[in-house]
Every structure is written in C-alpha cells, then in structure tokens.
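Changelog-adjacent note: as of this version, every example in the card shows the full chain rather than a window. The one below runs 243 residues end to end.
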Amino acid sequence: MQNNPRDAGIRDAEIEDKLEAWAASQSDAELSPELQRKLRDMLASSFKPVKPVPAQSGLVLRFLCVFAAGAAGLIAIMSRIGLHLMTGAQIGWMIAALGGGAILFSLTLARQMVPGRRQRLPLSLVLGLSGVGTIAAITLNFPWRTSSAFVSEGWPCASMELMLAIPAAVVFWLLARRGALFASARLGATLAGLAVFMVLVPLQTQCMFQQAPHLLVWHGGMAAVLIGSAALVGEIQRHRWIS
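Full-length structure tokens:
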C-alpha cells in the first residue's frame, strides 16, 4: 500500500490535530471508539493498492529474458561478420563471460528493488568477477596483435557501444522502477553494467577485428567508462535527494 500524494498532506494534518487534542485533554485515557473509528477511516482512505513486487527469482528471470531478447534482436539487425571469424572456443568463452556478468548484474538489480533487502553481493565483487571473467576470456582466447590503424578501427566500435548502451540502460531502469529504487552509485553502475554486457554480445558478433588489444581497449574500455560514469551520476543524484 502507498500514500496518495494528493490527499496525504491534508489528512496527515487532520490526524495530527486530533491526536494532539486528545493528548492534551486526556493523556492518561485510551482513545475513544469514535475517535479510533475516524482515525482508521482517514488512514484507510489515504492508501491505495499497488501491484506487489514479484519474487527475487522472477525479477532475475525477467531481466535475463530482456537481456537475451535485446541481444538477439541486435544480432539479427547488425552484421555478423565477427561471429564467422571466431572459433568455437572463442564463442563459448565469450558467451560464458558475458552471460555470467548478466546474471551477476541481474541479481544485484533485483535486490535493489526492495528497500532494506540485504545486498549479498558487494558491488566491488560483482564488478570484479564480471570484469575479470571478460578480460580472461579475451586475453586467453584472442590473438595479441594490432594494426597501424588501431584508433581508426576502434572508435566506431566504442561509439556504437555508447549509442546502444544508453537506451538499453533506460529499458532496464523502466523495468526496475516497479520496485522502490533509490539513487546511488550502486544503482547507476548496476543498470549500466547490465546494459553494457547486453550490448557487448552483438558488438562482439559484428566486429571484424577479433584481436585482444582491440577488444580490451575499445570494447572493454568503453564498458568501464560507461559503468563508472553511471556510478558517478547515481552518486550525484543521491546527494541531491539527501540535500
């Protein structure tokens, strides 16, 4: 149940006045049945029903379904030249790394939707595990070579990641708004992390430069910038709400 903002201020003032009058006149007596009824009616009328938040497993599954659908949709409309350039082992490792990151960020976001729920996974652990897993998948499976056109080959990938990750983060934020979200660095980083990992899937399959330096700097580097920037924005918003 939640308060109706339109009437909450007026009713709160009425309830406070009645309680103060009762306390001043008969502080050692109980509330009269009539006053109890009036207070109960006023409180009941100031609330309206809301949809309950699904169970934790349902929220995580919802985020993962959107993650999979979004990645598949982008793969369908983008070039898939990178998919044909990768070996089976490279594809498997990247699926495991990016899928594992999606699970970690989904778990973290789902728990943030319920105020006061214990955060079992510290943000540093989520970022560390997802980052190390992705870096390991790249460094151990892709060749270490660069070309003279390293910058000109890389900035289009970084730009595409930026353009796709922002609307993806908005989608996940709209899904998570069903809960009670509070602005924070953790929330910003979680939303950006889930969006970035979703975008990295089609970005990997369409990229024709399947070398470790390119993937680490232009794909992974932009991911780190986006997650860090979102965390900073979340922290700024938190301080604004507090002040």
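Structural remarks: The two ends are 27 Å apart (CA to CA).
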